[in-house]
Amino acid sequence: MAKHSKHQETKVIHLKDYRPDQGIEQPKVQYEYDSEAGEDFLAEGEEDQHQKREQRHLPKAVYHICLVLLAVVIGLSLWMNREYLNWDTLKEWAVLQIRGEENGDGFPVQITGANVYPRNFMCRNGSAVMLSNTAFTSINSRGAQEASIQHSLSQPILQAAGGKYLLYNQGSTGYMVISGGQTVVNSIAERDIITGCVSPQGSFALGLEGAHGASKLQVFLKDGSLQYEYPFADDYITAIAMNYDGTFGAVCTVRSEKGEMVSKVTILDFTQTEPVSQFETRSNMLLAAYWGENGVIYGVGDGALVTGKSADYQFTEFDYQGRQLTAFCLDSGRAFLSISAYEHAGASTLLAFNGNEAYGENNPVRMELSERIEAISVSGGTVGVLAGNQAVFRDYTTGMELGQADAGSDAKSLALASERKAYILGVSEVREAEIE
Question: pTM of the full predicted structure?
Answer without folding.
Answer: 0.78
